[in-house]
Amino acid sequence: MDKLLTTEQVAERLNVHVNTVLRFIKDGKLPAARVGKEYRIKERVLLAFIGDGPAPHTGALVIAVANQKGGATKTTTSVNLAASLGKEGKKTLLVDLDPQGGCAVSLGLDTSELNLTIYDVLVKRDLDISKIIMETDYRFELAPSNIDLAGAEVELMQILSREGILKRRMESIRNSYDYIIIDCPPSLGILTVNALTAADTVLIPVACEYMALRGLKMLFDTISNVRAATNPNLNITGILATKYDARTLNSREILEYLQALCKRENIRMFEPVVNSSVRFIESPRYAKPLVNMHPELDGAKAYQLVAQEIING
Ligand SMILES: Nc1ncnc2c1ncn2[C@@H]1O[C@H](COP(=O)(O)OP(=O)(O)O)[C@@H](O)[C@H]1O
Ligand SMILES: [Mg+2]
Q: What keywords is this UniProt entry annotated with (predicted)?
C-alpha cells in the first residue's frame, strides 16, 4: 500500500506553508483524497509532483464492464466484482450506467423511488456526483440509475463534447476511491461511449452460450474509435468467460475461440472462468451479490480470483 501523507507532512517535505499545499490541491496540481474535512496525499503522488519518481496513476482505476449484448453478464460481473474488491479492503464505487438499474435491483433497492440518479448527474451541470452516491451493505458504494437514464441518450445529443461528460463529472471523486466499476448498458450508444471515455480500462464479460460471439467485433471497433477520438490510453483489462457449462459443446467451443482470440490479439483472458450456475439467477432475489451470499461456490470464487488478478495488475 502507498503511504498516505497529511497536508502538514507534505508542507514540511516541500518546505512551504500548509496553505500553499492546500492551494496546490485546489488548483488540481497535487491530487489528493478527501478524508472528512482533511486531505491525504499518496507518497508516490508527492514524489511525482516533486519530479522525483515515475508519473503516478492518480486516483481510482476506472473499469468499464462492457459488451453490448444483453445477458452478457455485465451487471452480474460488475456487482460481484465490486463486492469482491470491497472484501479485499479496496474502496470501490459501482456506477450503474444502464437505464434498467440492474445494480440497484440486484441489491434489493427500489429504483423507482430514487430522487436523484446518475441521469441527473449527466444532465444537470450543477449536481455533484457525490450527492447521488449511496452506501450498500457490501463494502462498496453505488451511484444508481433508473429508467430516467433512458432519456439521457436523447438529451446528451444536445450537449457539446458529450462523450466526456461522465469523465468530467467523475473527476471530483476519482481520488476518493481505489476502483470505480461502470456497468454499461446493452448498446454501443452515447452512454457506453461515455463509460469508455471515462475508463482506464475495459473488462469484457462473454457468456459462453449461443450467439455470444456476435457483436464482439463491433465492440472492438467501438473501443478503437474511442481510442482514436476521446481516450487514447484506454486499455482492455481482459475477457472474462462466464456462464460456462463444460457439458455443452457450444460452451467449450466459445471458450476455445476466446482463448485463441486473446492469444492472437494479445489480450488477457482471465484465468478463472465463471461457471454457469442457477445460484447467479437466484442471488438478486435475495438482494445479495453471490460473493457475499455464497462465497464458497465456484462462481463466487471465480469473481474473487478475478478481483485479485485486477488488484495484482
Ligand atoms: N454464471 C452464471 N450462470 C448462470 N446465470 C448467470 C450467470 N451470470 C449471470 N447469470 C444470469 O444471466 C442473466 C443476465 O445477466 P446480467 O448480468 O443481467 O447480464 P447483462 O447485464 O449483460 O444484461 C441474469 O439472469 C443473471 O442472473
Ligand atoms: Mg445489465
A: Plasmid
CA of 249 to the centre of ligand 2 (A): 26
Condensed to tens digits (0 to 9), the pLDDT of residues 67-110 reads 999 999 999 999 999 999 999 999 999 999 999 999 999 999 88
Residue 225 amino acid letter: N
Domain 61-312 matching CATH 3.40.50.300: the answer reads yes
DSSP code, position 142: E
Q: Is the CB of 139 under 6 A from ligand 1?
A: no
- Ligand 1 midpoint to CA 70 (Å): 9
Ligand 1 pocket check for 283: Cβ under 6 Å: no
C-alpha cell at 199: 475508463
What was the pLDDT predicted at 57?
54
User: Can you list the residues of the chain whose pLDDT is less than 70?
Assistant: 1, 52-57
**Other Cβ atoms closer than 10 A to 259:** 13
